[in-house]
Amino acid sequence: MAPQSETTAFIGLGVMGYPMALNLRKGLPTTHTLLICDVIPSALSQFQSDTSSLGPVEIVFSGYEAVQKADMVITMLPDGNAVKKVYLDEESGVLAGAEAALKEGVKNKIIMECGTIETATILEVARVASASSAASNLTFVDAPVSGGPMGAQEGTLTFMVGTSDKDVFPTVKSVLAHMGKEESVFLCGDIGAGTAFKVINNYLSAITSLAASEALNIGMKMGLDVSLLTDVINVSGGQCWVTSKSNPVPGVQANVPSSRDYEGGFRIELCAKVLKMGSDLADMVGARTILDKPTLAAFDEAKSDERYKGKDARVVYKWLNECERK
Ligand code: NAD
């Protein structure tokens, strides 16, 4: 077993985590050991086989074991329940493992969640970590990503980092740079700020997906040239990421999800999930919002229809276009 300072653990080898961990293994020196953990055994064996020529990869079975053996534990988990299980479980959790490691004289560990998890859960883990006996030797970081599965595969993710111990940022950045571009690793503020940045950005892009779809659908129903309408919008006040980079109207832009039947993008279910997180965050901090509720209702209606479920969120354009006006 390599020394702890040369051991990093990665928990959650799913759609995002698998390619992230693969790029991490490629980026770490071959003397460095990568520990991997997932509840799906086939993901672990596949990963070991895919990385057999890249350096040591060993399997661990819990957050407890991971944090005892590694000085940094990165997790890429699907939701708040999984985060609570992996971090807070009294027997198998990361925090219990960190306390046990401290008793054995081990110092200074960084634990980092990179999924899109509701702010309340991130702050709960932070609160328990800061109350634990290992608190002075443990830094919890939230570092959610944007860039999707493609960015994870290409190693071009953007990371939004929140940590109350700014001294760890250079170390965090050097590791995240194996999975994203170094200039795209942002220190956003204290713990929870990374998640808030991510959720607020997605809140806006979810709402603009619907708003841009409505606007372009009006043009389409009027029989206008929607490609030309897009060109004019993109040099005018209505321009946004959706109109310029992921236009919802099929055929207006090449190589975007709408032009391949809304496949291979950011699924409408995930988009709605993160919009709801933004709405909950607004409630938590007492920020008045108007557009979240009707947008969520529109997404709910679209994703409950077989024709649109599972597709890229910009499928709300197709849903609007095929709806009868109420
Ligand atoms: P996923 O469901 O494909 O992967 C999650 C992995 O975690 C699975 O392999 C699962 O087996 C594992 N896991 C669950 N519970 C576990 C436990 N207790 N111990 C160990 N492993 C466990 O999800 P994903 O699409 O990779 O997304 C991961 C996170 O990234 C989510 O929070 C998601 O919101 C966020 N995210 C996803 C995308 C995307 O487009 N898929 C983009 C940006 C961010």
Automatic annotation (TrEMBL):
One of its GO terms (molecular function) is 3-hydroxyisobutyrate dehydrogenase activity. InterPro entries: 3-OH-isobutyrate_DH-rel_CS, 6-PGluconate_DH-like_C_sf, 6PGD_dom2, 6PGDH_NADP-bd, HIBADH-like_NADP-bd, HIBADH-related, NAD(P)-bd_dom_sf. Residues 9-185 form the 6-phosphogluconate dehydrogenase NADP-binding domain. The active site is at K198. Keywords: Branched-chain amino acid catabolism, NAD, Oxidoreductase. The keyword Kinase does not apply. The keyword NAD applies. It catalyses: 3-hydroxy-2-methylpropanoate + NAD(+) = 2-methyl-3-oxopropanoate + NADH + H(+). Its EC number is 1.1.1.31. Pathway: Amino-acid degradation; L-valine degradation. It holds the Pfam family NAD_binding_11. It is an enzyme of class 1 (oxidoreductase). Gene3D superfamilies: N-(1-d-carboxylethyl)-l-norvaline Dehydrogenase, domain 2, NAD(P)-binding Rossmann-like Domain. Residues 192-318 form the 3-hydroxyisobutyrate dehydrogenase-like NAD-binding domain. Belongs to the HIBADH-related family. 3-hydroxyisobutyrate dehydrogenase subfamily. This is 3-hydroxyisobutyrate dehydrogenase. It comes from Pleomassaria siparia CBS 279.74.
